[in-house]
Amino acid sequence: MTTAPELPSARGPLSGAVRDILLGSPPPGPPPGEAASWDPFGDDLQLALYMAYEPHYRGFRGVCDAREWDLDLLRLRGAMEETFLSALRAAAPGDDDVTAELDALLVEPADGQGVSHELMHDGTWERMREYLAHRSLYQLKEADPQAWVIPRLEGQAKASLVAVEFDEFGGGRGENVHARLFARLMEGAGLDARYGRYLEFAPAVTLAPVNAMSLFGLHRALRGAMVGNFATLEITSPPGARRMAKALERLGAGEECTRFFTEHIEADAVHEQVMRRDVIGDLLAREPQLAGDVAFGIRASVLLETRWEEHVLAAWREGRSSLRPGAPGISGSASPR
Ligand SMILES: [Fe+2]
Ligand SMILES: [Fe+2]
């Protein structure tokens, strides 16, 4: 059975052009419009980038596998990456003080206003399903983008990053792969857990963090930013996972559902230390010139997560869905069990 998702519909000229290339339509010629006019965080560019990266992961149904290295695709992707990366650098400025950036991650905002707080206190199954649909864009390929960085590391940094990845990929057991645990959580919540099922319904703010991971992972020059991104995910995960486990328990979810989060509370408390000391510590001992990029990777990840949180909370405050219209299996307040 194929696990490749459907190609989503275009959201503008860039995603239209990527769609055409993937489907083997004649090359579109020069990139649609002037790069200077593209919105780096907008729906069109973010979907186009996501579609341009996907042939490196599972591909799309009906798209020839060889498109992965299509020169028109790579050329257009390169131009979009440049736009996205410079916008990220401008939006997440700072210096190369990695210790300060890492320490800041440990400080939880005192106001307790995040999406996981909201779900823990007032979450409904409908909101929970919405949350999971957003998260599925990354969690169903959890730890895959970070795997691109392995050949770019050496020594202890490489050994320790692989040790973390080994846990993410289930410690040698297919049923324990974290992406699989997330799929079981989605199924338990009554959602369609097929890979890429919610791509069509994911807004730009949901796609951008995943695109940043693919961008950092696929460019050796950005290996510092990739390590900074991975460390950010591991360090910020336990408190959020604890709240999400509570949110699911409050809704009466079973162990199959909560397992994804309970697993992360424990595993990531260890991963956090390993990433900080053994991966970042060793990487910067070998390549101190990467400090600026590690720090940038951390800041960019925080920025994109914050933008996603703000989008979701604003939608919920206004009583509307934070997904694009038409997402299947979300509505209804009844418990899925
Ligand atoms: Fe994980
Ligand atoms: Fe982890």
Descriptive terms for the model:
globular, 337 residues, 13 helices, 0% strand, single chain, mainly alpha, Heme Oxygenase, Chain A, binds fe (ii) ion
Can you lay out the helices and strands and say which pair or pack?
Layout: H1 13-22, H2 43-53, H3 71-91, H4 98-105, H5 115-122, H6 125-139, H7 144-147, H8 155-168, H9 178-188, H10 204-218, H11 223-250, H12 255-286, H13 291-317
Helix pairs in contact: 1-2, 2-3, 2-10, 5-11, 6-9, 6-10, 8-12, 9-12, 10-13, 11-12, 11-13
The protein binds fe (ii) ion (2 copies).
Give an account of the 3D structure:
It is a single chain. By secondary structure, the chain is an all-alpha fold. It folds into two domains: 13-91, no CATH class; 98-317, Heme Oxygenase, Chain A (Up-down Bundle), CATH 1.20.910. The protein has 13 helices and no strands. The chain is globular. The model has no long low-confidence stretch (mean pLDDT 95).
Which ligands appear in the coordinates?
fe (ii) ion
CATH architecture heading of the largest domain:
Up-down Bundle
Q: Are there runs of 5+ residues with pLDDT below 50, and where? A: none
Mean pLDDT: 95
Short summary of the structure?
By secondary structure, the protein is mainly α.
